[in-house]
Amino acid sequence: MDEKELKTSTKQRFFIILIAILMVGSIIASYAAIVISGSQGSSSDTPKVDEAKIAELTEQYEAKQKELPEASKADFDKFVKYKADTVKAYNEASANENGVQARDIEKGSGDKVTTDNYLAYYIGWCADETVFDSSLDNVESPTAFKGVLDPSVGLIEGWIKGVEGMRINGIREITVPGELAYGDTREICGGKNKPLKFMIMAIPREGVPAELVEVQKKLQYAYYGIDYDTVSGMEE
């Protein structure tokens, strides 16, 4: 897989990072198992992606994105300031051998992060410095954030371990070995079992409109052919 193959459409880039297993109840987990394993059932068992629904939700998301508070501009300036010194090539073998590594770029002043109390701006890159996804509208010449990640939807194990002890409003670099990223379930960065690096900014959940988070959840589920409203209704 070359760099061109790593690039995705605008709507896909909202979701392709980090969703290894959807962990909101047993129903969602079973859906995710089908999607991720691919071969664990017939093609008729695999949820069908509704491109029209994704397009509709993307439009809603972009409209809600414009409602972000002005404080996000300060977050953006801070995030971009650290990008040039953080997003660099690294040794793939060492990253896989040394387990999850975490380095605070800027310590936060808020509470310690939990699954439900923060949202995240992020950038993720491969050993060769190729960025595979980010919250930025343009990796090379960013002008704003294009989205915010909701960790409660479900993240790779390496991310969860990497943010342990992190505080809200902080920025942290984490290194995730391949086995705690996507393992052999998915190709990324040119193959399977590839280590990943992330720069993460944790922001308080209450600082972002609830409607924006809700629409993003629906988008993330829709990308895997799951109707969020139906599943969440069955969980209640």
Protein described:
- This protein is of the alpha+beta class and 236 residues long.
- It has a single domain (3-235), classed as Chitinase A, domain 3, CATH 3.10.50.40.
- It is built from 8 helices and 5 strands.
- The chain has helices at residues 3-6, 25-37, 51-65, 71-86, 92-97, 157-162, 210-223, 228-235, and strands spanning 101-106, 118-125, 131-134, 171-176, 196-204.
- The chain has a 5-stranded antiparallel β-sheet.
- Helix 3 runs antiparallel to helix 7 (210-223).
- The longest helix has 16 residues, at 71-86.
- The radius of gyration is 17 Å and the shape is globular.
- The relative contact order is 0.23.
- Residues 1-46 have low confidence and may be disordered.
Brief rundown of the structure:
The chain is an alpha+beta fold and 236 residues long. It has one domain (3-235): Chitinase A, domain 3, CATH 3.10.50.
User: Whole-number radius of gyration?
Assistant: 17 Å
> How are helices and strands ordered from N to C?
HHHHHEEEHEEHH
Low-confidence sequence ranges? 1-46
Give, in spatial order, the strands making up the sheet with the most strands. Answer: 1-4-5-2-3
End-to-end C-alpha gap = 42 Å
- By CATH, the topology is Chitinase A, domain 3
Task: Using the coordinates above, name the CATH class.
Answer: Alpha Beta
Oligomer: single chain
Beta-strand portion reads: 5-15%
Mean pLDDT: 78
- What does the largest sheet look like? 5 strands, antiparallel
Number of structurally distinct domains: 1
Strand elements, count: 5
Q: What's the tally of helices? A: 8
Q: Structural class, from secondary structure content?
A: alpha+beta
Q: Assign an overall shape.
A: globular
What is the correct CATH architecture? Roll
Percent helix range: 25-40%
